Amino acid sequence: MPKAPEQNIFHTYDAERAGQGCSCGRHGSQRQHDTEQEVLRQTRAQDVEALTDDVVEESVMRALFPRMAQRRDFLRAVGKNTARAAIASVLPLGALQAMAQEKNGALEKKDLKIGFIAITCAAPLIMADPLGFYRKQGLNVSLNKTAGWALIRDKMINKEHDASHFLSPMPIAMSMGIGSNTAQMRIATIQNINGQAITLHMKHKDKRDPRQWKGFKFAVPFEYSMHNFLLRYYLAENGLDPDRDVQIRVTPPPEMVANLRAGNIDGFLGPDPFNQRAVYDEVGFIHLLSKEIWDGHPCCAFGTSEEFVKQNPNTFAALFRSVLTAAAMARDPANRALVAKVISPAAYLNQPETVVEQVLTGRFADGLGNVKNVPGRADFDPVPWDSMGVWILTQMKRWGYIKGDVDYKAIAEKVLLLTEAKKHMKELGQPVPDGAYRKYSIMGKEFDPAKAEAYANSFAIKRTA
């Protein structure tokens, strides 16, 4: 039986939610918002179907009326019940909600272990647990917080985890047998785009020119990471050889702030919330957001092994739908404060909510006395573009991780499951983009995936011959 519209956790049918006093825009103050939301969460925590229905209804309303003023005028004109009935007459809400709950075939495996690192990049994968998106698909998921990326890799190779949070270059490297035994992995979704930063120790606040960084020690979370490749790119574009002019150390993300505080490193290009945590702890400042290097770059991914996909196709499809549903919710800026509250507790990120919220909303202190507003600081576009895989391979070639000829497109298309992602996005009623290969601008230099080899060889600073 349909729930009363006023019970919707997003207040989808409330014409008066247009106030500016809180994160959802409905309350006079953030305190009123938090109080009501907590009551709603407690009463609806056990009602997973109702929560998923809320997400569907809110998404439909936002699609039909992108501007708040349009929604308000419509709702005031016709009222809550008429609005819901009118929308349902045009769009089959019941069918959409049923689709979100649909299990396409019997699940081969319901009890799953998924590894993750406690960073905001994993927001869709994490929030799918407390918000019930896994349970909605009939899955009983145990999220296993893992200490570092090498351990994530090893647990996937040893089949201790069924699926995992990955750095997006990791499945490519693992599938090629680079840095580990060969293990065929697949990327289902990109977990996040942007969302990283270069953070420096406070003692370097007068050294904002990278040409002053010779001899610096930097941390990145893993060799096969966008952090490593973006830091190398940034340094090289500023005339520094990342292998000769600085030191780059692999450091687990949770240890980056402590190493910065101790003076073991001068800075890091790392994941949030640790850039913001360095500011919060007054030991570092944000020099540059990664989106200023490449706006829209991939960072983390969600995936599993080829063997798991083949042996558990229905389970894998259910996982796909769960994470895509969470990503769609995380993409909406109106939900960012809620996402921060959901993923901050000890079981997940174990970070102050204010730190996580600054990252996700893009309104943050930079450690230099400024409050910045960058809405795209972190985002959650799940599309695993093949061109992203090709760019990663060009950097692996550039820095000597790959020797000899590289079939860029064949490798990217084998690892990144773009076709499957589009299929499931369409099933869920999500916008499906065209194509597979996009051109990118990275620090003003165009990357054309059709000219990958020439691109890899075009840089003045590189390890390739």
From TrEMBL:
Keywords: Cell inner membrane, Cell membrane, Membrane, Signal, Transport
Keyword DNA-binding attached: no
SUPFAM superfamilies in the cross-refs: Periplasmic binding protein-like II
Pfam families per the UniProt record, alphabetical: NMT1_2 (PF13379)
Compartments (UniProt record): Endomembrane system; Periplasm
InterPro entries per UniProt: NrtA/CpmA_ABC-bd_dom (IPR044527)
Protein name per its UniProtKB record: CmpA/NrtA family ABC transporter substrate-binding protein
Gene3D superfamilies with a match to the protein in the record: Periplasmic binding protein-like II
UniProt record similarity statement: Belongs to the bacterial solute-binding protein SsuA/TauA family.
